[in-house]
Recover the amino acids of this structure.
């Protein structure tokens, strides 16, 4: 598990990640789709009625190039991006001379 956020604008620093931990989702019998509802710097729409369960962690913001380099990634079987409208900027920042991506999905 990598506790970092990919920056769409190639800046670094810290960001707040809002999420409901898996154990609380199970304990409170919340819908399973809540597991994927993480958000940067604000509550996700799915969190609004469960704000009291939301955890906020501060994580490093890195570029996708740094993520690949730090983890010695040279090829990716599947890269799925769902990052609140910033997918295009992240795709443009990928150096395809250094990383081969077999399948790219933008949601």
């Amino acid at each position: 598990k990598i506790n970092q956020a990919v920056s769409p604008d190639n800046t670094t620093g810290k960001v707040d990640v809002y999420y409901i931990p898996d154990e609380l989702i199970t304990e409170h019998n919340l819908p399973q789709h809540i597991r994927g509802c993480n958000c940067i710097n604000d509550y996700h729409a799915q969190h609004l009625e469960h704000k009291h369960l939301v955890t906020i962690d501060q994580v490093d913001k890195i570029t996708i190039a740094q993520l690949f380099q730090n983890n010695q990634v040279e090829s990716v079987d599947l890269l799925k991006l769902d990052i609140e409208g910033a997918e295009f900027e992240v795709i443009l920042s990928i150096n395809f001379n250094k990383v081969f991506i077999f399948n790219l999905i933008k949601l």
User: Anything to note?
Assistant: The longest strand covers residues 55-62. The chain has a mean pLDDT of 83.
